[in-house]
C-alpha cells in the first residue's frame, strides 16, 4: 500500500511538473509550445552545470527558473509575440525553436552531461526505502499549484490575465496592456519548465533529448485537463496518476504510458473540453441556482 | 471639443467599411450614432476606441491626436467603452468584472465600487455571481458599471439596448442620463431603438453604408418620421 501511494505521488508530481508550464501558456494564451520539452531540458542543463561549478543545488534550481524565464521572455519578444492568438502557427514555429535548441545544446555541450546524484537519500518505512527527494518533488508540485492558484485569483495580474484570456479586445478597452500580460505569462510558463528540468536533473541522464520524456505526459495532462491551467492539470494529474500507477504496478511502465494515451482518447471523446470544461459547466449551473 | 473624428476611413483588413466619417462630441454632451444593421456603426466606434486601426483620417481626444495610440492607452486617457452585446467577462464574478474597470483612468482616481453599487443596487446583490449567469438587463448594467468604475471622460456605448426587454430599456436610458448629469461624463452611443434615441440624444448622426448621411439636433429630434427614415430600409 505504501508502495502504491509512493508510486502515485511520484507519477502525480511528474505529470503536474511536466505539464504546468505548458498548461499556463496554452490556457492563458492559446499558444501550443512544442519547445516545452526543450525549455525543461534547458533548465536541467543550467541546474547541472551550475551545481558542477560548485553552486548549491537549491541555488542552481533558482538559477534555472530565472534563466529559462528570461530565455522565454526573449523567445516571446522575438517570435511568439508575432503569433498571439494563432494556435496552429504557434505549433510550427515552436517546433522550429525546439530543433534549434536541441542542436544548439548538442553543439555547445556534446551528447550528454555527467549526471548529478539524487540528493537527500531515502527513508525506510515498513521495510521499503523511499527517496526523500521524490517525496519532496510531490510536495513541490502541490505547493506550486497553490501558488499559481493564488497568483491567478488574488492578484491584479491574475485578474487581468483571466480577463484577457476570455476577451482580449475588451480587456484592452479596459486599459489592460494585453501584450505585456502575454509576455509575462509566456515567461512564467518558461520559468516553470525551467524549474521542472532543474528538479528532475538529478534523477535522470541529462542530454539534448532530455525534454523528450516530458513531452508526451505533459501534453496528455493538458489535453485531459482542458483549458483551465490549474483545475485542469490538478484533476487530470490525479486521475492519470492513479491510472498509470495501477498499470505500472500490474503490467509495467510501458502499459502505464499506453494507459495515459488511452485515457486521453477516452476523455476527448466523452468531454471534449476536458475536466476543467466539465467543472466550469457545473460551477455555472451551481452559481445560477 | 472632447472628441473629433476627421475623415476617418477604417475596416477589417484592407477593405474600407467606414468611409470619411467626421463627427465631433463636445464636453458634457450626449450624442448618438444611428443607422441600420451592418452600416458600420460598430466598426466606427471600435476605431474611435482604438480596437481597429484607422486607415486614414485622424482622431483627436482631449486636444491630443490619438489616431495611432493603442486601445489600452486610450482607455487610460479617459475613454470608456461598452461593447455591443455588453461583453461582460462571463466566468469572472460581477465584482471581478467591476474590478477590471478600476484604476483605468490615470488622471482621476477610480470610482469606489460602493458608488457603482449605489447606481446599480442589483449588482451588489449579485457581486459573487458569475457574470455569465446574469440576465441581459443585468449584463448591460454590469458593462456600464464596469466602464464607469474607471471614471472615464467619454463613455462610448455600442447599442446598450440590445438584448434587453422594452420595459428595462427605459431604465437604462435614465441611468445613462443620470451618469451624464451627476458625474459629468460625456456620452457617445450607437443605437437603433427609437425610444432610446429620442429619450437620450441631444444630437444625433445618421450613418448609412459607411458614411454619415445626416445630422439631427434640436427640434428635429422630435421628428419621429425623419429619424425613422434612417433606421428602415
Ligand atoms: N470582424 C469582421 N471582419 C470582417 N468584416 C466584418 C467584421 N465585423 C463586421 N464586419 C462587416 O463590416 C460591416 C459593418 O459592420 P458593423 O458591425 O460595423 O455594423 P453595425 O452598423 O454595427 O451593425 P449592427 O447594427 O448589426 O451592429 C458589415 O458588412 C459586417 O459584415
Ligand atoms: Mg454594431
TrEMBL record, chain A:
Transmembrane regions listed in the UniProt entry: 12-33, 53-75, 87-110, 130-152, 181-201, 254-279
The protein, known as: Branched-chain amino acid ABC transporter permease
Main location: membrane
Gene Ontology terms, MF aspect: transmembrane transporter activity
Sequence similarity: Belongs to the binding-protein-dependent transport system permease family. LivHM subfamily.
Topology with respect to the bilayer: Multi-pass membrane protein
Organism phylogeny: Bacteria, Bacillati, Bacillota, Bacilli, Bacillales
Location of the protein in the cell: Cell membrane
Gene Ontology biological process terms from the UniProt entry: amino acid transport
Top-rank taxon: Bacteria
Organism: Sporolactobacillus terrae
Keyword line: Amino-acid transport, Cell membrane, Membrane, Transmembrane, Transmembrane helix, Transport
A GO-annotated cellular component: plasma membrane
Pfam family for this entry, one: BPD_transp_2
From TrEMBL, chain B:
Domain ABC transporter, residue spans: 2-231
InterPro entries: AAA+_ATPase, ABC_transporter-like_ATP-bd, ABC_transporter-like_CS, BCAA_Transport_ATP-bd_LivF, P-loop_NTPase
Domain of life per record: Bacteria
GO terms for biological process, alphabetical: L-amino acid transport
Keywords, comma-separated and alphabetical: Amino-acid transport, ATP-binding, Nucleotide-binding, Transport
Range of residues in the leader sequence: none
PROSITE patterns xref list: ABC_TRANSPORTER_1, ABC_TRANSPORTER_2
Record flagged with keyword Transport: yes
Molecular function GO labels: ATP binding; ATP hydrolysis activity; branched-chain amino acid transmembrane transporter activity
Classification via Pfam families: ABC_tran
Similarity comment text for this entry: Belongs to the ABC transporter superfamily.
Name of the protein this chain belongs to: ABC transporter ATP-binding protein
Amino acid at each position: 500500500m505504501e508502495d502504491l501511494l509512493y508510486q502515485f505521488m511520484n507519477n502525480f508530481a511528474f505529470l503536474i511538473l511536466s505539464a504546468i508550464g505548458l498548461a499556463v501558456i496554452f490556457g492563458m494564451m492559446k499558444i501550443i509550445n512544442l519547445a516545452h520539452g526543450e525549455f525543461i531540458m534547458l533548465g536541467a542543463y543550467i541546474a547541472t552545470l551550475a551545481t558542477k561549478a560548485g553552486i548549491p543545488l537549491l541555488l542552481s534550481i533558482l538559477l534555472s527558473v530565472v534563466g529559462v524565464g528570461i530565455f522565454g521572455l526573449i523567445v516571446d519578444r522575438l517570435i511568439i509575440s508575432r503569433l498571439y492568438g494563432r494556435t496552429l502557427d504557434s505549433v510550427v514555429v515552436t517546433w522550429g525553436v525546439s530543433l534549434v535548441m536541441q542542436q544548439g545544446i548538442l553543439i555547445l555541450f556534446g551528447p550528454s552531461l555527467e549526471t548529478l546524484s539524487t540528493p537527500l537519500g531515502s527513508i525506510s518505512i515498513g521495510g521499503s526505502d523511499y527517496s526523500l527527494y521524490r517525496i519532496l518533488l510531490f510536495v513541490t508540485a502541490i505547493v506550486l499549484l497553490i501558488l499559481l492558484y493564488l497568483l491567478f485569483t488574488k492578484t491584479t495580474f491574475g485578474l487581468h490575465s483571466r480577463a484577457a484570456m476570455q476577451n482580449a479586445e475588451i480587456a484592452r478597452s479596459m486599459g489592460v496592456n494585453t501584450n505585456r500580460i502575454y509576455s509575462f505569462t509566456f515567461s512564467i510558463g518558461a520559468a516553470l519548465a525551467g524549474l521542472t528540468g532543474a528538479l528532475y536533473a538529478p534523477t535522470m541522464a541529462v542530454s539534448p533529448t532530455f525534454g523528450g520524456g516530458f513531452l508526451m505526459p505533459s501534453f496528455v495532462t493538458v489535453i485531459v485537463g482542458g483549458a483551465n491551467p490549474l483545475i485542469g492539470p490538478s484533476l487530470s494529474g490525479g486521475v492519470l496518476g492513479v491510472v498509470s500507477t495501477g498499470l505500472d504496478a500490474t503490467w509495467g511502465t510501458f502499459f502505464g504510458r499506453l494507459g495515459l494515451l488511452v485515457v486521453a482518447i477516452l476523455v476527448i471523446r466523452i468531454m471534449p473540453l476536458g475536466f476543467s470544461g466539465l467543472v466550469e459547466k457545473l460551477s455555472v449551473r451551481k452559481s445560477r441556482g | 471639443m472632447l472628441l473629433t473624428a476627421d475623415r476617418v476611413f477604417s475596416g477589417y483588413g484592407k477593405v474600407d467599411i467606414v468611409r470619411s466619417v467626421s463627427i465631433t462630441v463636445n464636453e458634457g454632451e450626449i450624442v448618438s450614432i444611428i443607422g441600420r444593421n451592418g452600416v458600420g456603426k460598430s466598426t466606427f466606434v471600435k476605431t474611435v476606441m482604438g480596437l481597429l486601426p484607422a486607415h486614414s483620417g485622424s482622431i483627436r481626444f482631449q486636444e491630443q491626436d490619438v489616431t495611432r495610440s493603442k486601445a489600452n492607452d486610450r482607455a487610460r486617457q479617459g475613454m470608456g467603452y461598452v461593447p455591443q452585446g455588453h461583453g461582460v467577462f462571463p466566468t469572472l464574478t460581477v465584482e471581478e468584472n467591476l474590478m477590471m474597470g478600476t484604476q483605468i483612468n490615470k488622471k482621476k482616481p477610480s470610482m469606489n465600487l460602493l458608488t457603482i453599487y449605489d447606481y446599480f443596487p442589483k449588482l451588489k446583490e449579485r457581486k459573487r455571481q458569475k457574470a455569465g449567469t446574469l440576465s441581459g438587463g443585468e449584463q448591460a448594467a454590469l458593462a456600464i458599471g464596469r466602464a464607469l468604475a474607471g471614471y472615464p471622460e467619454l463613455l462610448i456605448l455600442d447599442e446598450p439596448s440590445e438584448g434587453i426587454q422594452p420595459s428595462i430599456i427605459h431604465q437604462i436610458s435614465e441611468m445613462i442620463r443620470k451618469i451624464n448629469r451627476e458625474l459629468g461624463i460625456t456620452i457617445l452611443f450607437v443605437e437603433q431603438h427609437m425610444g432610446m434615441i429620442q429619450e437620450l440624444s441631444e444630437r444625433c448622426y445618421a450613418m448609412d453604408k459607411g458614411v454619415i448621411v445626416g445630422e439631427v439636433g434640436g427640434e428635429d429630434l422630435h421628428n419621429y418620421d425623419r429619424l425613422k427614415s434612417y433606421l428602415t430600409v
